[in-house]
Amino acid sequence: MTFSLPRFVEDVRVIAPAAGRACHVDRLPDGRTTLVFRVIERGRKGDVCVAGPRTRALFKDATGIARAVMLQFKPGWSASLLGVAANALTDRIIPLEDIWGRSGGDLCYELLAARSLPEVLDRLSRAIALRTRQASEPASARLARRAVHLLEGDEVRVESVAERLGVTARHLRRAFTESVGIGPKEFARTVRLQRALRMAATSKDWARIAADAGYYDQAHLIADFRELVGLTPGAFLKRAGGTVY
């Protein structure tokens, strides 16, 4: 596998809260796995964790963080890059050392010694590239990524996705769960949720948003939002803005 970080990572975010301020973090269901490097205690200590895909939203206040760098993997790549099935990470935040062993802890020390964001990303890239050379990618991961492309495009029915890919719905679900961390139907729900949130940034016509995002109607949108996020769409948007990843 030829390694290029942008091939596998769809978003890189850096947060640096004001001194003494808590970092408000919102994690919404989106079928993504994120690698998080945190600098704490004024740069003297840090950790590297893997935040798996969520089935329900998580809101928390993190204190003592000087800086955090978050690499969000494209769906279907984390298993190959990290060496563990994606569904072993679902709804969990796990120290990288628990997954990689000693090399996960060594990476944290290397990142703490980095003097710039490009250097942090370079060291992360090298570490992940080394792991990918030691592992083979299963065919199920490639199948899952093709399904992700269809579900994030114009296909909304899992059965239709399976048919287009020439596999049974059961086979697709197994491959998807192993490589993405949640089932394809659950992933389709997160796609609708994220679409609705993007549209809500410029419109408050919830009936139109529901129709354009792929819901049956506005009531369906609100019910899905309550179940996945724990709030109505309006209540979520009125919250104080946090870092969403």
Can you describe what's shown?
The protein has helices at residues 5-8, 78-82, 96-100, 102-113, 117-133, 139-151, 158-165, 169-180, 184-200, 206-213, 218-229, 233-238; strands at residues 9-15, 23-27, 34-40, 45-51, 58-62, 65-73, 93-95, 243-244. It is of the alpha+beta class and 245 residues long. The strands form two sheets. The chain has a five-stranded antiparallel β-sheet with strand order 1-6-3-4-7. The protein is globular, with a radius of gyration of 19 Å. The mean pLDDT is 89.
Summed up:
By secondary structure, the protein is an alpha+beta fold. The protein has helices at 5-8, 78-82, 96-100, 102-113, 117-133, 139-151, 158-165, 169-180, 184-200, 206-213, 218-229, 233-238, and strands spanning 9-15, 23-27, 34-40, 45-51, 58-62, 65-73, 93-95, 243-244. It contains twelve helices and eight strands.
